[in-house]
Amino acid sequence: MKASIQEGQFATLPNGIRLHYASAGERGKPLILFLHGFPEFWYAWHEQLQVFGTTHYAVAPDLRGFNLSDQPSDVSAYRPKLLTQDVEQLIAHLGYESCILVAHDWGGASAWNVAIGQPQLVQRLIIINSTHPYPFAMALAHDKPQQEASAYMNWLRATGSEEALAKENFRVMEQFMLGMGRASDHWFDEPTRARYHANWARGLSGGVNYYRATPLYPPNGDDLGAGKLTLDPKNFHCNVPVRVIWGLQDKALLPILLDDLPSLVDDLIIERLPDYTHWIVHENPTLVNQLIERFLTE
Length: 298
Fold this sequence. Notes:
The chain is α/β, with parallel strands linked by helices. Helix content is 39%, strand content 17%. It contains twelve helices and eight strands.
């Protein structure tokens, strides 16, 4: 049995941002909130909504800058503090004091920040190929392979990257979605492709501005990127239960990013999956659902 998905819902947050979201299940049941990454939108989680909407109130927003949510033009509107605030305020808007957070890529960046800074809002954090900020900063500053793997960030940060991404009917966007690991495009069928093209046609600057606004990026010429930061790991400790699902064939986020997690998270389980990439949510949603279910019931 699968729950039906309701699209076309909007939350106007106290900070003035209006987020579109889709949901499945009944409001009042435990909230499970799914946060997507770049260049995705809420639909990345449609199979999770259908499954977990049978037992939870399952919600997947379009993050700020994506699809039907507000897309501020100013790069400063995408600073990590504001993205984290969106998540915190959405939880309250939905009528909850806390939730289960499931997140991928940029959604995971905000989810990590919420869990670290406002742990009372997060009952459990489930991360899918999205790095904790401290190991990422250290790797960007000191690890040559991760610097090379993240070099695309500086391309996206450059002026005009959104126009380059949109050329030839979003050819580069499709390559981005299908080229961050082994070739695995079975999930990108024509109906899915049409949905993603409609999403991208609504604007790419918001998503690209995540890269422009973050202080975590690799060196670029004389710019040291994350190497300019002085961070204390004690300020990044996470004391909520964390479960990590990680496709080891991810070309952008390397396994070194998992090494320091045990020292930063009190209650941690990592599920390393050698046959999957950054896009494991799409490649095998059934497996992802099984792992989430196991994490929720253990």
